[in-house]
């Protein structure tokens, strides 16, 4: 299937409504595959990132970090390839003034300043980029990720939390401007409540997925929605976050943070990762240990488990096969719609 070819699938005259919540490199892969299968995709993207080009821009002009948002917009864009490539272009390190910045990040930062916030800026830019679907920042203001570790100590900042190398007990988010309680825009809540399925992951459990759910009205909406709630378990554990975690440990952390068992279905990869395949120099945040399966633990929490070969190996990295994952999500969307119609 080519990038421009879509599988046309509809639910009673409309496209399946899929909300994907998360951040990081896994999110655009899943979003792109769902887009190619004709899903009506809404991506709710974390705004608590403080690293790389996004972090630098945030420090200079106090803008919501745009990197994850930029990648998702490109994944859903129907613009010609050249325009998408220009938007993604990252200046070389020799260009000292622009070093490391992606053009798209600069455009998002500029529009955010012009519009007085990132939410309306992204909606305007989505129209310009022919985005098929919706891209919603989880919050209209920059957020700070906070963590408490098992030893009782606390830290603020995504990069600092991951680098601490301690076992994380819980995380929460605060507004970076005043330390107050953040809230998502109403469009985010409406999308979650109106979805056929709500998908979380793949992505860093504590720094890409939970920051969204810790925005109170987002977490409340995920608990209240009639949509099927799906969690895509990471294939490998992550250094400084989920060392030695099983798939059930991941779900247990999600449930503990929202104080309720809410994940309906879990997608688990069962294909073996070849020993020594992972390029640990390139993918420094990923552990060489695959996430172990605890089927009994998942069933005890009431989760339906879908186990399959979701593995894609490329460039020394270990990824989810977006098309295979999208197939399962779309099937679950149809099942959820039928159940809710009864």
TrEMBL record:
GO terms for biological process: regulation of cell shape. Coiled coil: none annotated. The keyword Cytoplasm applies. Pfam families: CofD. Keywords: Cytoplasm. GO terms for cellular component: cytoplasm. InterPro entries: CofD (IPR002882), CofD-like_dom_sf (IPR038136), Gluconeogen_factor (IPR010119). It is found in: Cytoplasm. Its main location: cytoplasm. GO terms for molecular function: LPPG:FO 2-phospho-L-lactate transferase activity. HAMAP family: Gluconeogen_factor. Belongs to the gluconeogenesis factor family. Required for morphogenesis under gluconeogenic growth conditions. PANTHER family: GLUCONEOGENESIS FACTOR-RELATED, UNCHARACTERIZED PROTEIN YVCK-RELATED. NCBIfam families: CofD_related (TIGR01826). This is Putative gluconeogenesis factor. It comes from Lacticaseibacillus sharpeae JCM 1186 = DSM 20505. The lineage of its organism: Bacteria, Bacillati, Bacillota, Bacilli, Lactobacillales.
